Amino acid sequence: MPKRGGSRTMCTAMESAFSDLDSSSCDFSFPHTDDEDSRGSMHAASPASSLASSGNALDAGELQQKKKRRGRARSEAAVHVVKKNRRLKANDRERNRMHNLNDALDALRSVLPAFPDDTKLTKIETLRFAHNYIWALSETIRIADQRGNKARDSSAAVNCMAEVPSPGSDACSWASSASSPSYSSSNPGSPEAMDDYGFLQADVVYRYHSYPGIY
DNA sequence: TAGGCCATCTGGTCCT
DNA sequence: AGGACCAGATGGCCTA
Q: Is the pTM of this model over 0.70?
């Protein structure tokens, strides 16, 4: 399986390089800065004040209008800042949410049977393989249960190994001793589990790869 | 260079 | 109102 691309954007890379900086410092979607806001309002204010101070005769109504406009500009700037902050917070939450999702996917990957040569499963592969794996486990359990029942009914599970050729496995005793198998508490994909249930694992992996479904 | 995968941003919608 | 969730858009990285 080819190694896949996909790495962090320049922005994120810079964020991690300067992790002490607020993420907002890497936000390019708001080129209109607070600084500009204040400057803008300053500029908006300056003509009126210069006019007033220069002694030009502005009637009271006009001044009132200018004050209103200035006030509106200020409140609009404030609303803009509030909106911007809200957006940045939402971006942050969304980022965390996606990180949690990725952590969960990593956890899922870690319990799926892995193949040494394989690179990391993609997200979609992880979900599909997990689906297949669950199906394979279910199938194996179902068949093992059937065998267990058969063995109990005949009260002679002695020939079990001949029925299930699996060198070095304890599948026979496992299948005949209980109607449902006991499972290793270890990680299903771990070497211990493979040792405990070599046959089971081989069977599961076989089914896992011969899944008849759409995937 | 095209295509696949990924991280992130964004606006909309739903829920508490 | 604020947070969670979702889907579309965008741009970067990597491989064939």
A: no
Report how far residue A70's alpha carbon sits from residue A43's, in angstroms, rounded to the nearest whole number. Answer: 10
Q: How far is the CA of A13 from the C1' of B16 (A)?
A: 35
Strand B closer than 7 Å to the CB of A11? yes
A88-94: list long-range contacts, CB under 8 Å, 24+ apart.
A88/A23, A88/A24, A88/A27, A91/A23, A91/A27, A92/A23
pLDDT of A152 strictly over 90: no
* Biggest CA-to-CA distance, chain A: 114
- The answer to whether A90 CB is within 7 Å of strand B is yes
Q: Which of the two residues, A73 and A50, has the higher pLDDT score?
A: A73
Taken in order A152, A158, A162, A165, is the CA torsion positive or negative?
A: positive
Which nucleotide has the shortest C1'-to-CA distance from A16? B7
Given a contact cutoff of 8 angstroms between Cβ atoms, the answer to whether A119 and A105 are in contact is no
Nucleic strand C near CB of residue A29 (< 7 Å): no
